[in-house]
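Private note to self, pasted from the team thread so I don't lose it. Backbone tokens:
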């Protein structure tokens, strides 16, 4: 973790001061420090940063304002804000308020240090933070490494991350942790009964594939992650307008997120039998493209009428979910950049999720709140089932009403899951439009921390 350091010499202390504690702290300081603090009007307000120079021309200490509790309600990764105000060097948190969460602060620091420099070299920000005894270093590394993997994958353009390239990335991850990895490619998808994955991806020069990675003890708690891997989405014959196509390299954000989560799980060696399934395709246009009004047969045996080729994600996920469901996992998680309707409902920052289990929903929400990974449950609203039932097939991939798009997509996917003990589907955005604290502009994981801690908790309870 290049953002952190173990050194103990030539370290500049950081003092974190709340408004309530400022006067008491200031009274204990030297006349010089008091004068400098007064001249710079520092009073502990949130995000205020003040470097106090030494008589040797360096910096004696850095003060960081922690404000009042109400100031910190809308965000929790506040400590990362200090990074851009620091000179190159190594720093250590010397003192902090009693309610300061060291693990959260160090996670914020690590995530804020992310840069995507594959195509454009940037000046390194040589600012390092000394690891604290209050921080679980192994967990910190797992969370940061997993999230950075997700961001790298989403940010990489389709020219360098098509279905084959995505399979190569999974192969690298599998080799790192000793996992098994395989792919079903091209016409073999038809031979192995994955007709909808093949139909969506057959128009591309890069053959469609189902990527399969397995890790862990077969007798352990079974977790299966299914991630949408549409490496680029033109919309197919129902082609997207230019403005809507611009970000479609991120349409594999579900795959990127489950791989980041898998990295966290394997890095922490959780006692699970982990399986990751990624239907990896490009939704391209050619003489081989699937068409509106085509009726596709699914792996499960349900027929699907195609009313919009731009609703392709649910088609490839349906075959993958059917396959995942066949071995009856304890927990089946689906992750996809699936609908614009989800963004209209909850915006870009909150990950909506769907599950029939109120107990599971409560746990996911609690872990999302605890670890600042915002999620919100939306309903599997059964009366809307009629919207996805056309006259000529079992299912419609794009109901013409346009109502409740995220819910009808989730209901469509639920039709392909029957045997799993618990099932949850996330409809994520996977992108930070403007950049925020610890979330630079570009690809981001959503709900992965909440799910990591959920799975960790389930394993601990399962093992007694």
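Design output:
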């Amino acid at each position: 973790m290049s953002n952190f350091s173990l050194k103990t010499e030539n370290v500049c202390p950081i003092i974190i001061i709340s408004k309530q504690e400022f006067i008491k702290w200031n009274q204990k300081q030297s006349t010089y420090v008091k004068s400098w603090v007064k001249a710079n009007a520092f009073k502990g307000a949130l995000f205020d940063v003040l470097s106090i120079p030494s008589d040797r021309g360096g910096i004696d200490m850095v003060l960081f304002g922690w404000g009042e509790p109400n100031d910190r309600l809308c965000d929790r990764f506040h400590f990362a804000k200090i990074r851009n105000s620091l000179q190159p060097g190594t720093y250590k948190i010397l003192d902090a308020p009693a309610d300061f969460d060291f693990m959260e602060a160090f996670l914020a620091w690590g995530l804020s240090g992310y840069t995507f420099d594959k195509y454009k070299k940037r000046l390194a920000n040589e600012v390092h933070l000394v690891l604290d005894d209050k921080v679980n270093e192994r967990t910190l590394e797992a969370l940061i490494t997993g999230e950075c993997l997700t961001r790298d994958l989403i940010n990489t353009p389709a020219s360098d991350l098509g279905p084959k390239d995505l399979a190569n990335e999974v192969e690298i991850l599998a080799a790192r942790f000793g996992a098994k990895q395989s792919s079903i490619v091209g016409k073999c998808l038809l031979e192995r009964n994955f007709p909808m994955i093949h139909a969506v991806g057959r128009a591309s020069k890069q053959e469609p594939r189902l990527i399969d990675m397995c890790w862990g003890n077969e007798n352990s708690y079974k977790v299966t992650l299914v991630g949408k891997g549409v490496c680029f989405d033109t919309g197919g014959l129902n082609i997207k307008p230019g403005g809507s196509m611009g970000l479609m390299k991120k349409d594999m954000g579900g795959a990127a997120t489950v791989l980041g989560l898998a990295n966290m799980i394997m890095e922490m060696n959780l006692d699970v039998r982990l399986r990751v399934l990624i239907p990896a395709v490009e939704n391209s246009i050619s003489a081989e493209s699937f068409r509106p009004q085509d009726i596709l047969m699914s792996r499960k045996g349900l027929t699907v009428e195609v009313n919009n080729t731009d609703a392709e994600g649910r088609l490839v996920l349906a075959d993958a979910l059917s396959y995942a469901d066949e071995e009856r996992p304890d927990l089946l998680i689906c992750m996809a950049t699936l609908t614009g309707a989800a963004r209209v409902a909850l915006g870009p920052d909150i990950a909506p999720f769907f599950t029939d289990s109120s107990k599971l929903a409560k746990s996911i929400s609690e872990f999302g709140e605890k670890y600042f990974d915002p999620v919100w449950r939306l309903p599997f609203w059964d009366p809307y089932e009629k919207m996805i039932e056309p006259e000529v097939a079992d299912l419609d991939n794009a109901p013409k009403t346009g109502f409740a798009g995220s819910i009808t997509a989730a209901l469509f996917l639920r039709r392909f899951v029957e045997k799993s003990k618990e099932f949850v589907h996330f409809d994520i955005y996977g992108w930070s439009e403007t950049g925020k604290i610890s979330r630079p502009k570009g690809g981001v994981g959503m709900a992965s921390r909440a799910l990591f801690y959920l799975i960790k908790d389930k394993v601990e309870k399962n093992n007694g």
